[in-house]
Structures are given as C-alpha cells and as structure tokens.
Fold Threonine synthase.
Amino acid sequence: MEQVFYNSTRGSIKNISSSQAIIKGIAEDGGLLVPEKFPYVKDMLVKMKKMDYKELAYFIMSRYLTDFEESELKACIKGAYGSKFDSQDVAPVKKVGETYFLELFHGPTLAFKDMALSILPYLLKTAVKKQNINKEVVILTATSGDTGKAALEGFSDVEGTSIIVFFPEDGVSEIQKRQMTAHKGKNTHVVGVLGNFDDTQNGVKEIFTDNEYSELLDKKGYMFSSANSINIGRLIPQVVYYFHAYLNILSEDEIAKDEKVNFVVPTGNFGNILAAYYAKEMGLPINKLICASNDNKVLYDFMGSGRYDRTRQFFTTISPSMDILISSNLERLLFEISGKDSEKIKELMALLKDKGVYDITSEMKEKLYDFYGGYAKEEETKNTIRKIFKTKGYLMDTHTAVAYNVYEKYLEETKDDTKTVIVSTASPYKFTSSVMTSIDEKYAQFSDFKLMDEMSKLSGLDIPQPIKDIETRPVIHKTTCPRDKMKDVVSDILNI
Ligand SMILES: N[C@@H](CCOP(=O)(O)O)C(=O)O
C-alpha cells in the first residue's frame, strides 16, 4: 500500500505519519492535519460491493492509516463496530418515497458521531503504543450536543486516557445534556460553559495551541489530543459510510454502475460533509454535496458569495448540534481548493480570528462547484418533520429535517433528478420536545423525558435502549465555568 503522510494546513508540520497525526489532534500552529493525497479507489467499487461494513472500513481506512499494521487496524475495527450498534448493518439506508436516508444513529449515543468515536479510542491507543508514548493522553472536547456524549462513551475507562468535555450550558437539548452530565466513568469530566458553542470550541483550541501550557502538561506527564473532527482520526472513519451508502444503493440496483448520487448533509463544524468530499476525491461517484444549515447560515452565505463572515447574531435553534458560526473543518476544504497553499490559509485564518471575515479568491470559489448551500428556518424545519411523518410515516430528528428541507429547495431550484441520499445524523429521540411539538403543539405541556413514551406510541419505534432510563439517571457532573476560565478548570481537573 502506498504510504500517506500528513501536513498541517498552515504549513508548520510536514510529512508526519497517520499515528502521529491522530495523537496530535491539531497542529501547534493551529492548522489542521490533512493527508498529502487522496487514495483513488474508483476502479475497485465493484469489489467493494461485496464487503460488509467492517471489511469496507478496513479497505478505506487502511489506505489512509498506512503506518498501522493490518492486524492492528482490523482489531480497532472489530472492537468498534460490534454489539454496540443496534443494527447489523451499522449504517442502514432506508428508502422513503424517492429519497434515501443514510441512518447514522444506530450506535450507543444515537448520533452519527458514534461512527467515528467508536473507533477513535482504539486508533489512539494503538497510535500511542506505536509511538512509544508513556504519557496520559487528555482528550479535550468541545461539543454542541452530540460529540460530547459519543466521546465520553468511547473513551470511558480507556486506560492511559482521561477526557474533558466542554458544552454550552444552555445550548443543547435536555436529553443531550443528561446523556453527558449523568455519564459514569472514572476518567470522564463534563463541564458546562457559560457561552455558546463557538466560545466553547475557541476556548478548547486556545488551550491546545498554548505552547507554554503544553510544556507544563508535558512535565506533569500529560499530553492533549482531540475527539473533535479537527482530529483526522475522527474524519477518516466517516469517509467509510459514504462508500457504504453508495454501495448499498448500487447493490439494490437503484443506480447503475458509475451513476452519480447527491448527498445532503446537515452541517455545523463541516466534518461530516468534508468526509463526503474526501470520498468524492477518492473516486466515489458523487454529483453534488448539498450543505444544509439552520438559521446560523454562515456556510450558506459563504457558498453563495465566497465571503465567510462570522460577525453576525448567533441563534440557538432546535437543531443545536449545528449552532456554529466558526466551522472548523472548512479550513481543510479551503486548503484543497487553494491548491494546498498554506500561506493563503494562514492569511485567511488570521483574518477570521482578527476581523471575523475573509474572502476567498475567484479561483477558489470556482472550485466550490461541487457544493450547493441551503438553509432552513425554524418553522420550515418543523413543517418538514410534520409533513414527512404525516405523508410518509418517517420520523426525522431536527437536523435531518433541516437537510430534507434544503433538499426540497434544491430540487425546486435545479430540477436535478440525480438520486439523493439524506444523511440522517441523529435519532429523533434526542430531540423529543422539538420533534413532537412539530407534529402537534399539544405536546408542549410535556418534558423531553416524558415525551419519549409519547414518541414511541406515535411512531411505533421503540425507545432506544441507551436512553430508556435517562430521566432517572443521577446528574454526576455539575461544574460550570465562564468561557475565560476553561483553562483553569482543566488545571483543577488534572491537579496541575
Ligand atoms: N456538532 C458537534 C460540534 C462539534 O463537532 P465535531 O464534529 O468537530 O466534533 C457536536 O454535536 O458536538
């Protein structure tokens, strides 16, 4: 297999191995680590058709994680995609009307983050061993709702690691919050930040790139890594399910060999849709990557104008995992469409930090051709949930509904009849109140927890096992902190 090395988008790191990249999480210059090239596998799609999820995961991931031995990577995959998923298929594709839903919420925390965070702890542990590191790895995570619980689940009681999750105290659903604050695990810490997700993510990134603090940590026997999609070890496992979805539809003869499909991705931090872009670069026949936003439509505006402008009102919406104005992984796309120009990326990221706004060049904008941006207002999201449930009997969560609504607008505008896959990122059970009141306002009188039963009665879907007893689970993690005290909280937790 051809070796693939990793570079920082901002130029300070060149040619490190995949295990080094996974351990690092983010480069010291604040840049993100990217593969130097994309392995091309289009000619092998027919061969891949016969693979189950684990075989496919090995096929794709082994082309990126080239310093992992076959036995090491296979062990990671086996550990990750087993009994914790409630579907044999791991990521089933459901046809609803003429559209396909790629359901990524069958893992232990009911969101797509499980697809990568089930395997990241295994990859990290293997990488640490390969690099002969004998420090405790502290996983710092910022979450707008879903990553946090998936990371806690993945890293709980993993030897040689501890995990600290920061979430916006008032910016997640009740069920998301309880999933995190009631989480058990000796090495886990959960902290509510008195700010929004951008504050939370910026705070974490500042800690990561504080070199003096890293030195202190090093002396005390610790090192940081990330469970967010800034870590390339989060992103690569996500590429797999785009192939899986395509091959699934191909096997069902819904499309012909080499026929292109569209993917519609509810987007916040840009990791999920970037994984689809990586799949396209690897030769997966993709027509459009439809980037769906909620009222925090910074990406929609960017796709249309080439101007990224985070200086705007931040909205707390019913699709909280997408309430983000600084979309981390866009930096990786900018790097690709600039012709891997790290000087340009440094300039744009400095503008983003200092002024909150940057413009890409017209050449870069042309390369956004693969993408289509759209957004759904709150009422549109609610109407979509109600309409699709009433007309097709399919119950979606709020994030998936944003994607579906944007797809309807795309269809209306383009009349594109390419087969389309909606990426369904979370179970409706994580957002019971928003989903149920979309169907009928009468549900507004019940709490999120009580609505789990109502949802089950209405939809005929069983309450997922991992959250059955969530209402009565005691809250263990009660710490909150202002945005500018996050580093102090980390120091307290680590006792340094
Ligand atoms: N939507 C995310 C925000 C963090 O994104 P990530 O993909 O970088 O982990 C969440 O639910 O926490």
About this structure: The longest strand covers residues 161-168. The chain has 21 helices and 15 strands.
